[in-house]
Design goal:
By secondary structure, the protein is α+β, with helices and mostly antiparallel strands. The chain has helices spanning about 35-40, 45-75, 85-95, and strands at about 20-25, 30, 110-115, 120-125. It has a two-stranded antiparallel sheet. It is elongated. The chain starts with 18 loop residues before the first strand and ends in a 7-residue tail after the last strand.
Length: about 130
């Protein structure tokens, strides 16, 4: 029962502190990146991940096929190809050479960020007063 409580004879004259209850609610942060993705014409992270996984699988299969063909060329001595290892190294360099990448990192619109901060809930329950 909140408020001042009656004092019994056993606790007469004893100090009874008030009970303080503080309840905190964690702050919330919500972000919306859709305007940035649309501005830079980017794909959403999940669809981009699936596309990259598919591309990597294709590249792995192509690399395996290229290695098998290189092995066949080295093993085929009867073809009379001169400088087989040099030709293979040159073709590998041309296939895996440096590529130019352009990154645009500044969107015209920023990320929408919404913070929700809740005040603490403080409750003080008085337990009684000392007699006069």
């Amino acid at each position: 029962m909140p408020g001042i409580q009656p004092m019994t004879s056993s606790d007469w004259g004893q100090y009874r502190p008030a009970e303080l209850t503080v309840r905190l609610t964690s702050p919330e942060m919500i972000t919306d990146w859709s305007s940035v993705f649309d501005d830079l014409e980017l794909k959403r992270p999940h669809s981009l991940m699936r596309e990259i996984e598919g591309r990597i699988q294709g590249e792995i299969l192509q690399n395996i096929a290229a290695k098998a063909q290189e092995g066949d060329r080295v093993a085929n001595i009867s073809s009379g190809e001169k400088n087989v290892f040099g030709n293979i190294a040159h073709q590998r360099y041309m296939r895996n050479g440096q590529k130019e990448i352009t990154i645009e990192a500044l969107p015209k619109q920023g990320v929408y960020i919404d913070f929700r901060i809740y005040p603490p809930e403080i409750n003080v329950e008085a337990r009684g007063a000392l007699p006069k």
